[in-house]
Amino acid sequence: MVALSVAVATMALCVIPQWRGTFFYYMGDQHEYFLPLWHHFGEQLRGGNWPTMDPDGWMGGNYAAEALTGIWNPVNLVNFVVVSFFNNLSLAAFTVTIGVLGLLALATFLLAREYGAARMPSAVVATALPVSGFTLWYEASGWPAGLMAFTWVAHFWWAAHRHSRGLLNPFVPFVFGFLAMTTGYPYAPLGLIIVLVAIAVELVARRELSRLAHLTVMGGCVGAVGLLVFLPLLGTVDVTSRQQLAQIANDTFFVPDLGDLAAGSSPTYLPAILHWNGSLLEQVPSTYCAWFVTPLLPWLQWRSLRARLRSLTSLSVVAGGYLTATLGPSNLWLFRWPLRLIEYFYLAALVLFAVALSAGLATDQVRRRAIASAAIVLAGTYLAWTVEPQHYNRIHLAGLVLTAALLAIGLVVYFRRGRCALGIVLIAGTASVVTLQTSVFPQTTAADPPVYPAYDIARLKADTKDYQGTVLQLASLTGVTTEQMRSGEIMFGNLPRAAGLVTIGSYTAMLGFAKFADALCMDYRGATCPQAFDRLWQPADHETNVPLVDAMRVSTLVLQRSLLPDVAVRTPPPGWRVADRDDVRTVWLRDRPLLDEGRVSWSSSGIDVLTDSAQPQREVVRYHSAEEAGRILFARLDWPGYRATLDGHSITVVNGPAGLVTVEVPRGEHVLTLEFHSPGLQLGFLALGACTAVAVLQTAVWVTVRRRRR
Q1: How many angstroms separate the CA atoms of 413 and 416, rounded?
Q2: What are the two backbone dihedrals, phi and then psi, of residue 551, each rounded to the nearest 5 degrees?
Q3: What values do phi and psi take at 641, rounded to 5?
Q4: How many domains does the chain fold into?
Q5: Which of 268, 404, 551, 655 could make an SS bond with 638 (beta carbons 3.0 to 4.6 A apart)?
Q6: What local confidence, expressed as pLDDT, does residue 516 receive?
Q7: In angstroms, rounded to a whole number, what is the distance separating the alpha carbons of residues 518 and 637?
Q8: Cα distance between residue 594 and residue 284, in whole Å
Q9: 502 shares its domain with 474
Q10: Each residue of 534-587: pLDDT tens digit?
Q11: Residue 452 — very low, low, confident or very high, per pLDDT cuts 50/70/90?
Q12: How is residue 571 annotated by DSSP?
């Protein structure tokens, strides 16, 4: 009940950012990628479909290979359905996110208790971690996959450590490891590995080899789950732009330093970290940890930890490992931006703090300790001021006064009422600091003036009701206003998918299908360059005498006037007409929109397509060619995994113009079947079944041995 109360209290605490800024939990990738796609997934699930590939999503439609979609995570599936009932995506984001933050608080509380912390110190750190800088301002605000991965890794850590002490069967940590792995976030398997290594070191130090064997088997089962999640990505990455990021380098992007960590208890400290658009100064407190940690260090009874050093071995290994990684280079293979790891270090540091606080505060040398605490608070404020001495002076002063007052109140009530009263003050102080931070550092976009995202799905559908067939938008992010976004005049990322549109521009975590992205100069969010318009009307390649716009079966063309000022006012080519024209966009519509289900967009001269039946992962074409062999072109991106058969016999699939699927076919009348199977998916399912069976068997053995020993 205490643990659940901590989770509920944290959820209530996390309402403050939403109260201070309506769109706090709906920024960045949250509105460009996750929430619109989750809404689309939820509608698909409610309709009985569970897509792993959707060619209508184009660069963002290879859902199994995206990994980050988390389509194998059962908790995610519930979230998809929940989100699909919301018309307001911002409210849906808030609802889902505070639930995950509550689960994170629960995991932190249990983990602190697992390492021997008392209830009140555990509750103090459990309510502080979810509203720490990076977790609240980046993960909760815009990167929900990272937040979910962090949450499930924390639960796995608790369960795995408890299992290593013989108090929990191995199936529970396996389930949490499965949930962490299936988020698809690459830092989840990294966290699982670090936790397993740390606990293994502790078991070796305690010479408990039988429990180490159990931990190894359980960890191997969790690792096998990763085959289902990441094999499709690894089998697809060669045709994407993501492979260009696999390197070891340091461009200083999102790389914190020791000074940023030292100021982790200053509520108004904004780190000098290179981030988007070349900015050198943060606008949000991304390295903030908890306001009370460093000011209370002089009061902790560190000697109380000496007798518990061996039991804290794994905690120390995790803390040391993540501290090293947090201060590392910006790129280590596919792992980028070490600031993303700071929350894992803070989790370990706060648990260690809770264990130390459980011994109570020191009562001797009160004056010296008070002076040390005051010096720490002043030093944190000074560091915050030195980053931007020309701004935020009043805010830094307010942070100083608030922290000093809370610290003084906490110490007074501790000496008069004890540890429980101190805990209440610390939790109340956390709420006060969150209110201050979200009031003076409002979460906004990088644009000036700020552009707030679209969230009303009904309005988006109403304003795009005249769109037909496949939609292609030629637009850039430059100059887009809030009203243009919310009215649906200009949309990027996956918002068109939530609005029910079939759109070529979408968000892809793999940064795009390289050949297709080059043909349209389209980025991972669907933004294009001005040259894309001319390329649309040119032949797809020297062998395919059809314009690219026809090869993609585009029926609605949205032209941003600021990007294409001359094109937007001209008369469309034959076969097209102007459906709408205003100061923001011009919409061209085919005289005869391509609305049939088939995706064949062109065939060689002499080839007649008799029937074309298409599903997301399968298409059957019956054709007749009286003269000679030729080619059939499909409006599908040639992701690795496509296979073609002709009358049941395998034939070759060719990577055609702009990366579209092309099949060379012989003369005569035949049935061509095109099917898609995500690479590695079958092996992944076999691995999942095998590791689940092993985990169940291991649990049965564990329970049997435990009963015999009793």
Answers
A1: 5
A2: -60, -30
A3: 130, -10
A4: 3
A5: 655
A6: 94
A7: 13
A8: 47
A9: yes
A10: 999 998 887 888 999 999 999 999 999 999 999 988 999 999 999 999 999 999
A11: confident
A12: P
Asked if 522 and 611 sit in the same domain, the reply is no
Q: Does 523 share its domain with 628?
A: no
DSSP string, 179-216: HHHTT--THHHHHHHHHHHHHHHHHHHHT-HHHHHHHH
In this structure, are residues 177 and 153 in contact, taking their beta carbons and an 8 Å threshold?
Answer: no
Pair (528, 434) in one structural domain:
no
Exposed / middle / buried, residue 257 (Cβ in 10 Å: 0-12, 13-18, 19+):
middle
| 277 token code pair | 């658009």
Region at 500 (left for phi over 0; alpha for psi -120 to 50; beta for the rest): left
Q: What is the 3-state secondary structure (H, E, C) of 467-481?
A: CCCEEEEECCCCCCC
Q: Is residue 129 part of a domain?
A: yes
Q: Which of 509, 471, 508 is nearest to 488 (CA)?
A: 471
**Cα gap 50→71, rounded to integer Å:** 8
Half-sphere exposure (CA, 13 Å, Cβ side) for 33?
A: 23
Coil, strand or helix: which one is 578?
Answer: strand
The string of DSSP letters for 612-630 reads EEEETTEEEEEEEESS--E
- The total of other beta-carbon atoms located within 10 Å of residue 266's CB is 28
Q: Are 574 and 591 in contact (CB under 8 A)?
A: no
Q: Which domain holds residue 130?
A: 2-142+247-269+279-440
Q: Give Cα 412 to chain centroid, integer Å.
A: 43
Q: Give residue-wise pLDDT tens across range 261-291.
A: 999 999 999 999 888 777 788 889 999 999 9
CA 43, CA 383: separation in Å to the nearest integer? 49
